């Protein structure tokens, strides 16, 4: 054990980019293979059974202890790569240990972020996920239904974006609000992801206007035994959270309902926001410009430009409010034109990011204001933030619509 720990510590000090633990000991191993990959300031382990994969985030300083505990008596082979070398630890059935290292003649195996390497699905075939069976994505045996493969891809892409945003969150319990939850397919999947795959305690509240939908969702949560998941009837506009909110999700909340959800998240100082906007009609009805009239001459161009401008302004306003904000492709454009997801993570939040300087924040605000001036835009999110005193020098509130959640069928 001491010799193994010494070799593992030597390996960990090299800062490996990827580690593969294989050749399980015994006839009935818990895991058949474990991969560990570097993710910025931490490592992520993926432990594979015959039917499932379990993920765990590991701080760099804990890597050696994790590897020693995981490998000892359980596996016979460890392979690892850094930028220049490949390392191997081989353990015989009698416990003899061999340590090897050699220079890599080409490039080391690339990590998951590489575009030319196929990622493992966070929810793979064979996993027991009752909501996916009920929504027709999986068969009762855990196989993907061929006609639902696009939906299956969309679900895993959503979870990848969530996982990258949540990062190293180490709180005891994540408090999540899902605005405009509708039928809540992804809400149930999100609960499964946190509780079953990440082993993270969560409390998720789904909010929607339709009383029959809320009743059915609560019945389903009871049927699945999801005790930390419940649903309430209510309007996004003016909703009061009963506890501090860590994460706000809004999936296809229609038009300005997205703005009310984002505004609430900012007001609550939520650590993370994940939003898939829908039906961005507001700016399409406001746009006026002489300098760029070609953008308004053709209906389809006007509609798409207005939708993109809506989300670009939203992203900049969130950045101004202190969030590291990204606009990400949610699914391929061929599957749906509503393919943008806004991911915003509070600076200094779960992964210890630095606070955004005031000068940078003002740059984001200035960009949004110049676009608003050029095209005569009066976005609801800007009005809400200004009315709450969150935008320097602004107090006026433009007329806005009440936010009501609409479900897209997700």
Describe the structure.
33% of the residues lie in helices and 24% in strands. The chain contains eleven helices and 14 strands. It has helices spanning 2-13, 63-71, 130-134, 149-166, 185-197, 211-224, 257-267, 294-297, 299-320, 358-375, 380-387, and strands at residues 18-24, 33-39, 42-48, 53-59, 75-81, 85-91, 97-103, 173-179, 201-208, 229-233, 247-254, 272-278, 323-329, 340-346. The strands form two sheets. A seven-stranded antiparallel β-sheet has the order 4-3-2-1-5-6-7, covered by helices on one side. It has a seven-stranded mixed β-sheet with strand order 10-9-8-11-12-14-13, with helices on both faces. Strand 1 and strand 2 form a beta hairpin. The longest helix has 22 residues, at 299-320.
Structure described in brief:
This protein has about 400 residues and is of the alpha/beta class. About 35% of the residues lie in helices and about 25% in strands. The chain is globular, with a radius of gyration of 24 Å.
Shape: globular
Helix content: 25-40%
Rounded to an integer in angstroms, the radius of gyration calculated over CA atoms is 24 Å
Profile the largest sheet.
7 strands, antiparallel
Strand order of the largest sheet: 4-3-2-1-5-6-7
Cα(first) to Cα(last) distance is: 50 Å
Strand content is 15-25%
Element string (H = helix, E = strand): HEEEEHEEEHHEHEHEEHEHHEEHH
In total, how many beta strands?
A: 14
Structural class: alpha/beta
Q: Given the structure, what is the number of helices?
A: 11
